Automatic annotation (TrEMBL), chains A, B:
Keywords: DNA-binding, Transcription, Transcription regulation. InterPro entries: ArsR-like_HTH, HTH_ArsR_DNA-bd_dom, HTH_MetalResp_TranReg, WH-like_DNA-bd_sf, WH_DNA-bd_sf. The keyword DNA-binding applies. Signal peptide: none annotated. It comes from Knoellia koreensis. It holds the Pfam family HTH_20. NCBIfam families: HTH_metalloreg. PROSITE patterns: HTH_ARSR_2. One of its GO terms (molecular function) is DNA-binding transcription factor activity. SUPFAM superfamilies: Winged helix' DNA-binding domain. This is Winged helix-turn-helix transcriptional regulator.
Amino acid sequence: MIAEADPWVAMGDPSRRRIVRLLAAGPSSVAELADVLPISRPAVSQHLKVLKAAGLVDVRPQGTRRIYQVDPAGLQALRAELDGFWGQAMANFVELTNRHTKENEA
Amino acid sequence: MIAEADPWVAMGDPSRRRIVRLLAAGPSSVAELADVLPISRPAVSQHLKVLKAAGLVDVRPQGTRRIYQVDPAGLQALRAELDGFWGQAMANFVELTNRHTKENEA
DNA sequence: TGAACCCGTAAGTCGTAGCTTACCGTTCGT
DNA sequence: ACGAACGGTAAGCTACGACTTACGGGTTCA
């Protein structure tokens, strides 16, 4: 498995973000996605492979078709990491503000 | 301005995510970042350029050095878009669940 | 003013991501 | 069992992103 499993890298590609947006609106098959997107069906397939490896989408075989949908857990993981960044940045901000205030008080 | 201004693309690169992580812990100069990271100083400079274009970091010239720090607004924007995906996905989920329940009731 | 630092940019190389066409396995309908 | 959809994979091409080294512009301190 040399495949890319990083959700951030997966979301970095505009086409994949568009796919996620479409799937967030409702599950759909590969052909349905390819019909809307300006890329070929195999390209969509490859993007879905990356998104699946990143844990952002799920597959549900249904007859001859494969229905894809977003995996809330994947988005949640991204949110968690992003909140981590944000929280740390804010904590650092208030600390700097406090220090600055104290310096001005002195 | 051919520069890349997409925050998602900016966060897609591991080195840049690491820089954001470092800056979230506290502001620092380019040399300080390059000292920690396994890449050259110009490489860090280029990454910072992308992050700045994406609105994820801010610069504050201080003497001969340039102090970089995260821009909370940029992270907030990412959070907002991510929450949009999540909310839509969840709404779609409960709708599907309701429909499924109704079908089973009928 | 000149030396020493910090940093951004230019130029060039290398790897790889994203796309295409072609092909093949699988599943349903008749 | 045959043909048709649906979709994943292989092979190959092209473009771009992430590095590197080399250079130049500012700012500080003697």
